[in-house]
Records
---
Amino acid sequence: MTNGLPPLKELKEWKALEAHYEKLRGTHLRDLFAADAKRGEKLALEAAGIYFDYSKHRVTAETINRLCDLAEAAGLREKIEDMFTGEKINLTEGRAVLHTALRAPKNATVVVDGENVIPHVHAVLEKMEEFAEKVRGGHWKGHTGKTIKNIVNIGIGGSDLGPVMAYEALKHYSQRGLVFRFVSNVDGADFAEAVLDLDPAETLFIVASKTFTTQETMTNAETARDWALRALKDKAAIAKHFVAVSTNAAKVSAFGIDTDNMFGFWDWVGGRYSMFSAIGLSTMIAIGPKYFREMLAGAHEMDEHYRNAAFEENIPALMGLLGLWYNNFFGAQTIAVLPYEQYLKRFPAYLQQMTMESNGKRVTVDGRAADYQTSQVYWGEPGTNGQHSFYQLIHQGTKLIACDFIAFSKTHHKLGRHHDLLMANVFAQAEALAFGKTAEELKTEGVKDWLIPHKTFEGNRPSTTMLLDELTPAALGRLVALYEHSVFTQGMIWQIDPFDQWGVELGKVLAGRIAPELESAAEPELKHDSSTNALIRRYRASAGR
Ligand code: F6P
């Protein structure tokens, strides 16, 4: 398999960036801002409802041009078109990659294997809407005739992180009479705590799994079925208390869920790109079809921007390129995602799967070991909490960490000074990181000499500030699509397949082998390494086996 391109580091555009980096690496943001009074306005873009200020990055106009040249040389423009038009760009799995089709309008055409997929997308959306309205309206009754009030989504990875992130992000728009819980971990505590105060007669489980074979999800779903049937005492209750979201109708029906109560999607929707598909059923029940459609429209707006804008004016392309600039030239290892919006508290966790399961690859699509870094580590917490936790390291530690600040001009809660203070903090952090505080400034403030090194902030720490109007469903759609396309931009330049995830397989296989060794009554013959063998023996002994 080949992508038809020379190795990345042999591209002349890459070499030009290496040379450019050597010239720019010592330049301070203080000097870049001093050299151009309008830098803060010039190095900012506005599209699809996002004001994207990248002026506090260690770049010049030349850097941006050279990064965009690299994107062109890497064939990004054609690859974007290939993705949008349903080419099988997930090379190792031979699949199209069409999360963008999930938010395309009804009159769009996207052909996969000779068939337009858009009517299928909209048929599922309509089925979801009908079901969501029934639950929201109190018309979906449980087996005993009680109204369903609790919705428990059982899924893991993309079948959990998107739903829980979107529920938290859009709680303000949710129907407050309904209770939503999300169970993902195979640790029984997750299920036990989620249902502790719920009445089975009023509870609906959404079993969300693309494959319907994932060990954690199937274990939780079986436990949920036992829990419900223990109380409801009739197998017929499953039809009222369980629905499935999956691509695997045979497994759904083998589990006992009527496929009439199944919401389908397709192999061209990756797990970590699935929150706009039927995997978003819990989101739609929470916020209702109208807001769900607005979220899709927001994502579509970002899709159009990514597909059509020149790279220099293309927010997702620039975001991806800036990340690559620090990753591959400055040697930075991580990116902090710092939303100044409490409702986005699960957004960094959601992005971890999207970014790292996508681009955490060490070989290129043609099987060569990449001789350059691929995905950064993504992490973060909402501001201002992070400021009183790990920001110290970002400000004064020895590591270079580029930050994504995400903020909203409007709040859902106008409470005294809260929002002004929140915004003052986000602007202040980006300013402090970029400009720091010099020894001279400290001296003029009368700080004692011996304390000056400790109180000095060297600055020159890069960040993007994304300013949006308000955290609406559309804004969330735009933000998610922005990061998706930034990940795509990087993956294409790194010549990897961002849409497979072979790296999670080995652990699954080994867990499948170890589970019976933990559970068997007879002493198993252990053939692992000495560490794993000893751990298994210790566990068996403490479990009395
Ligand atoms: O972690 C591996 C993975 O396949 C993810 O890509 C996916 O989102 C998750 O497991 C859950 O898979 P499924 O939806 O098939 O249960």
---
Amino acid sequence: MQYTEIMVRYGELSTKGHNKKTFIDRLGANVRKALHSFVQVKVHAQRDRLHVELNGADYDSVMERLKLVFGIQNFSPSIKVEKSFEATAQAATQMIKEQVDKPITFKVETRRSDHHFAMDTFEMNNKLGGYLLDKFPNKLKVDVHHPDLTLRVEIRLNGIFLSSETIKGAGGLPVGTAGKGMMMMSGGIDSPVAAYLGMKRGVSMEMVHFFSPPYTSPQALAKAKQLTERLAKYSGSIKFIQVPFAEIQETVKEKVPEGYLMTIQRRMMLRLAAALMIKRHGLAIFNGESLGQVASQTMESMLAINDVTSYPVLRPVLSFDKTEIIKIAQDIDTYELSILPYEDCCTVFTPPSPKTRPNVDRAREYEKRLDVEGLMQRALDGIEITEVHPGDDYLNQNEDVFAELL
Ligand code: ATP
Ligand code: MG
């Protein structure tokens, strides 16, 4: 079938009152970005629907991209015909011919926004339904309640549009409508899932990644960037901010009792994330903590760590079990990367038995042994920012470099 457009239906955003226009404009921009490599495609974001005019582009590839855009409830590949019953009936016949190879039940469902069109929705349903029954007496039977196939007909000012398939979209809200978040992105399983869930609710993420050369390898860094690439598919591109963390970890290890190493390291991470958030006009910090999962993720630990900032620290996977997080990681294609065995800055410096119930006052006390300001300043002076695009390759690129060295 040579479809002429994909008709896109909005989800939750259709109910957003006066913010609606902002949401629709943003969704339009995000869809254009997702489809920018299809030069002939035109996107029209209207009040009730978004129309992707194909102009000959391959509709399967276009739909694959649309599936990743948040804010879309569902969409239908559609064919546009001139405004006459004959043209509609002819296209409908073609659709049934191509799509139906065994007996099924069906119904015709018409919507009409052009009220000057000669037939109303009732007439179109009946006449077209009857016409198709005559054409395909052995294939089609009408069932208005639970049909196998619903043939949708939309009579609009600029033409009549037919579709028979409705494909589920990614749901959520368009990325960017909620503002910017700073995602504390490790190379683990949980933070990419947390990032995905935040993005799904409209947050435009910037990744903050702490790395500790020479204790951590270039592959560990490449892995975090590659995970970012997986997530960039949902938003076009993502800024990846790498923050050198070795000096802080060495100093903390030297000056702080072992039981508090982890708490103080985490306090430093959070402080740095907060500093970056202010500088880059973010509205919240995100992390991948899940309650009770490990020592640093008890409520006592969160209290002792969160003490360093009054900005919101949002934890999208807080109440999920590990198996639930893994399921999402598999669905969004981050799991296989996350389990690659490259050491992370925390594993290297994690004491054998960190305190599961650290005390805030003690943490503050031990921290006085550090030059917090100086350590932070040097880390912030050393940041590097990479714009990560979908399709970028960091891991294999690295392998080549290593291969050359050998
Ligand atoms: P993850 O799978 O996301 O690494 P985790 O269960 O392994 O989570 P931790 O490693 O203790 O838990 O980290 C808790 C959270 O702290 C992470 O989800 C992430 O948001 C943040 N974090 C940990 N390490 C780093 C890092 N190197 N850079 C940035 N953020 C980090
Ligand atoms: Mg981790």
